[in-house]
What does this fold into?
Amino acid sequence: MNKLIAVTIGDINGIGIDILIKTWKEKKIKNFILITNINILEKKLKEKNIKLLLNLVNYEKNKFVYNKDKFNIFSYKANSLEDNTYKSLKYGNILCTNKKCIGVITLPLRKDLIKDKIDKNFIGHTEFFQKKDKKNNVNMILFHKKIIISPLTTHIELKKVSKIISNKEFLFNQIYNLNKCLKLDFNIKKPKLIISGLNPHAGENGKLGTEEKKIIYPVIKKLQKKDINIKGPLSADSLLIKRNIDKFDCFIFIYHDQALIPFKFISQFSGVNYTGNLNIIRTSPDHGTAYNLLGSSKISNKSFINCYKLIKKIYKHRILNGKT
It folds into this structure.
């Protein structure tokens, strides 16, 4: 009972709920709780002609009423589908913070719908949990088998990246905390890091931009003095060559698409998005709502299953390293 995993509903009109049900019916996951308004879920199941034995787990004498043979739901009041999505994140965070669940898997959602109808300041899952945890720095970490990739900036406009990384304290803290996370959550004793530049060919010694020389390199030297094993900045287009994959533990990119494009090609949508440096353990599948795949035989649950496995793995590592 103390090793339950929370699953947020995401966009109930997307493929997330189908993947969850498929995975549960195949008996590839257990000990999880779906966080959703139960009436909204029942309506969706009726539309899809899906029959499930549901169990409402909400507290009875401050304990979950969990049934291992049924599909377990944590329910609450919700005024709309978007409200249901947003509150699911809130309760997922609460259940993990209160140690009712060991981690949370966040199913894909539509950011634009949340911004338009619920919270105009909503940016994404990473930033939502960062705010809830009151952390100045968190890390988006992309995990696939033995490959770990991390962009230093996340969901921001490309034109703002240079300005943000010009804050050397931000840059230092992002990498310093990433190194700490690799030790704690991935149990890598002495992480070997490699970082890209911002500009093509890492600026070509200042000919294609000066961010590498003036900002990134000085921060790297400072990190090295803190006994952090990091190399770079190197050209982003050659960071993930086989020689480097065999040599380094984590590949750091400066901005979102530098990291996500090669990662999704390598993982083929079976990878995991993990938020590092949170008090809770949060993972998310490496795909979106994918309305176009609804009802298709092409839907894969590999990424979701890997999210589930990574939570259990990190939970064990945190116990091993004395932090749960």
About this structure: DSSP finds eleven helices and twelve strands in the chain. Residues 1-135+278-324 form a domain with the Isopropylmalate Dehydrogenase fold (CATH 3.40.718.10).
